[in-house]
Amino acid sequence: MPHLLSVWPSVARRIRDAGTAMLLFDFDGTLAPIVDRPELAVLSPETRQHLASLAMRENLITGIISGRSIADVSARVDLPGLIYAGNHGFEIAGRGISFSHPQAQQVRETLAGVCEELGKAVSAIPGTIVEDKGLTLSVHYRLVSESDQATVRRRFSDVLIPHTTSGQLRTTAGKMVLEVRPNLDWGKGNAIAELRRMFPDAALTMFFGDDVTDEDGFATVQESNGVAVFVGTARQPTVALHRVDSPVEVSQVLGLLEQIWESPL
Ligand SMILES: [Mg+2]
């Protein structure tokens, strides 16, 4: 899998030749480094500056596709001109769009109940953070001692089993996080496909992500001859055909993207 920077001139040329391009980014672990407490994640000043300038370009559609809720991620980024897809794509907003997956809405009440149950089941374990995101929920255990992590996972599945068995909810796992979402065939890849329908002029799509829930996004993007970029070490398995090492390198790429239309390639 080539490092994106090692093939940059050819990718840059494809973006420029596309006329209009769509640039999509996961947030945690991609634009912002992963931190112990999710509420402390922030963009570096450089990343913020690059994103702000890309979001203003007329020939770019720039967006963030996160597992966080839109309310959370948009407050954290707080830049005009961006599109936000939240809760792994169950909701999309920005640039005149207001989309919320109708069937996901119907599961809201069940999710709220599960959130309460999970609070009782795991909140006594130090370091556990249960986060109600409306259309999905997360249990973060990065701060839980290693000896307690199995207990968190066991209690999580005890609470969820009746709901996953009934077919209403499903669970996924990411980096030190367990997640619950409506059991619908919908993820970041579907949100990207939706955005491609909403912006048919965008001839090339680029998507950067670092975790398991980004994989169907990579697949969708590459099916349309777009560029999928995995953020992390080469050892991790991914379907993405390009990679960079870290959010710091993502920031470098943002800087290079800004230059595409300014200097000869
Ligand atoms: Mg991520």
How would you describe this protein?
There is one protein chain. The protein has 265 residues and is an alpha/beta fold. The protein folds into two domains: 4-101 and 186-259, HAD superfamily/HAD-like (Rossmann fold), CATH 3.40.50.1000; 105-182, Alpha-Beta Plaits. 38% of the residues lie in helices and 23% in strands. The strands form two sheets. It has an eight-stranded mixed sheet, sandwiched between helices. Strand 1, helix 2 (45-55) and strand 2 form a beta-alpha-beta unit. Helix 2 packs parallel to helix 9 (247-259) and helix 7 (188-198) runs parallel beside helix 8. The longest helix has 20 residues, at 146-165. The radius of gyration is 19 Å and the shape is globular. Bound molecules: magnesium ion (MG). Residues 26, 28-30, 210-211 line the site of magnesium ion.
Produce a short descriptive summary.
With 265 residues, the chain is of the alpha/beta class. The protein contains 9 helices and 12 strands. The structure holds magnesium ion.
List keywords for this structure.
binds magnesium ion; 23% strand; four-stranded antiparallel β-sheet; 2 domains; eight-stranded mixed β-sheet; 265 residues; 12 strands; 9 helices; globular; alpha/beta; Rossmann fold; Alpha-Beta Plaits
Largest sheet: 8 strands, mixed
CATH superfamily of the largest domain: HAD superfamily/HAD-like
Structural class by sheet pairing and helices: alpha/beta
**Structural domain count:** 2
| Largest sheet strand order | 5-4-3-2-1-10-11-12
- Total E-strand runs: 12
| Residue windows where pLDDT falls under 50 for at least 5 positions | none
CATH topology name of the largest domain, in short, is: Rossmann fold
Helix tally? 9
Radius of gyration, CA atoms, in whole angstroms:
19 Å
Write down the CATH class of the largest domain.
Alpha Beta
Q: Could you spell the SSE succession in H and E letters?
A: HEHEHEEEHHEEHEEHEHEEH
- Please report which band the strand proportion falls in: under 5%, 5-15%, 15-25%, 25-35%, 35-45% or over 45%: 15-25%
Into which percent range does the helicity of residues fall?
Answer: 25-40%
Distance between the termini: 23 Å
Ligands:
magnesium ion
Q: Mean pLDDT across all residues, rounded?
A: 95
